[in-house]
Amino acid sequence: VQLQASGGGLIQPGGSLRLSCVASGFTTEYYAIGWFRQAPGKEREGVSCINSRDSSTYYADSVKGRFTISRDNAGAKNMVYLQLNSLKPEDTAVYYCATVRGFCLASMVDYWGQGTQVTVSS
Q: Which of 28, 68, 85, 121 measures 20 to 30 Å from 91, CA to CA?
């Protein structure tokens, strides 16, 4: 099982980014996938998760209305995305994708992907 996140970068406040998570060794369609983030000096937190059975979604209060999680399993794709809009400096963190069992919590993660840095700054 491998996951690789990408798409991070330096962005001005109010800007947008799309993070991508490519999975290999398993099919994301059958796993709950989550996006987590960790800012310097802070614990890793669940940002958004998408359920495997019905693609229901969860968002942390801090990102509701600004971030959107989605999956694409069409054809050979095995991708999960996180669209980040209206970015704020407090969104600055390393973002990770992961397989999740149960709630969208770091303690419920089975497999972590490599992170991607998002820096929101003017």
A: 28
